[in-house]
């Protein structure tokens, strides 16, 4: 009979299976490589079976390793669900609040809102995760997400706060007279989570006139201001920069919903509820900017 296994044993096997190697798995768990190597050997010895095949390209789980990793995943889900339910019962506006959003939304919208929220609720410690790819709120990667999306996950609850308008922008000093067909463009890469922006540029510029591709929305405005080329920008970003001007009206095909989301188990948590209500009220005051209701000739 195999000896009982600890939760940390399952976590290690899952991390190795996820990362296909010891080094990344050890970093994920906050341990060193030699500790991970030693623990894996101890687990395999205790079970009397090999959990991974060692290759030059990495660690491939055996059927036993795959099954242990799947058990660990189910255990993680159960632990996360239990943690969410406990947090949902906390009545005090205090403790850690983990928020995820894209870098561009943080820079242009969320940062000042967080400043005012923290001043009002000093007992809340905010942890911000900037990611252009959505994190898994079901696994407690974050408590709250501010996302640009037209299709929020069914597992989350929240509210649509506004429609993020996008338009085409160039440098004000370059004017609007030059035909778009003669201009160079800046584009987003396809895998950034804003694929429709990349498709918009590709349809109008073609590969020959795309000077630079970026993997982050936050860098688009800087690239346009630097004179690299013209690009679609969220109006919230472009209209605030005196050195830029709109070259088009807001493009309906580029619009996206702005959602404030959390997991259903957390919506009654006092700190989550306090942030959701506060952020929604603050964002409502910025809605005219988010939705691009500035005339093309507005002074800058």
From TrEMBL:
Keywords: DNA-binding, Transcription, Transcription regulation. Transmembrane segments: none annotated. Residues 5-62 form the HTH lysR-type domain. It comes from the Bacteria. Belongs to the LysR transcriptional regulatory family. This is HTH-type transcriptional regulator HdfR. It comes from Methylobacterium isbiliense. The gene is hdfR_3.
């Amino acid at each position: 009979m195999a000896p009982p296994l600890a939760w940390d044993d399952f976590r290690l096997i899952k991390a190795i299976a996820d990362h296909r190697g010891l080094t990344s798995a050890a970093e994920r768990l906050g341990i060193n490589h030699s500790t991970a190597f030693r623990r894996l050997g101890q687990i395999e010895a205790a079970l009397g079976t090999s959990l991974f095949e060692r290759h030059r390209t990495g660690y491939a789980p055996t059927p036993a390793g795959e099954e242990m990793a799947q058990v660990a995943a189910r255990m993680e889900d159960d632990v996360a669900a239990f943690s969410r339910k406990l947090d949902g019962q906390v009545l005090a506006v205090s403790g850690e609040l983990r928020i995820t959003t894209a870098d561009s939304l943080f820079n242009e919208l969320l940062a000042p809102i967080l400043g005012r929220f923290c001043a009002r609720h000093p007992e809340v410690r905010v942890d911000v995760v900037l990611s252009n790819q959505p994190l898994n709120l079901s696994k407690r990667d974050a408590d709250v997400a501010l996302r640009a999306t037209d299709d929020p996950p069914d597992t989350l609850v929240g509210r649509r706060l506004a429609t993020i308008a996008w338009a085409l922008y160039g440098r004000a000093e370059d004017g609007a007279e030059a035909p778009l067909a003669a201009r160079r463009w800046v584009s987003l890469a396809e895998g950034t989570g804003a694929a429709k922006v990349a498709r918009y540029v590709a349809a109008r510029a073609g590969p020959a006139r795309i000077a630079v591709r970026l993997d982050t929305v936050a860098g688009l405005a800087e690239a346009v201001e630097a004179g690299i080329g013209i690009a679609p920008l969220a109006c919230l970003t472009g209209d605030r920069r005196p050195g830029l001007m709109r070259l088009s009206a807001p493009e309906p095909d580029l619009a996206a919903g702005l959602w404030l989301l959390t997991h259903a188990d957390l919506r009654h948590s006092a700190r989550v509820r306090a942030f959701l209500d506060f952020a929604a009220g603050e964002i409502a005051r910025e809605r005219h900017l988010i939705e691009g209701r500035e005339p093309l000739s507005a002074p800058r």
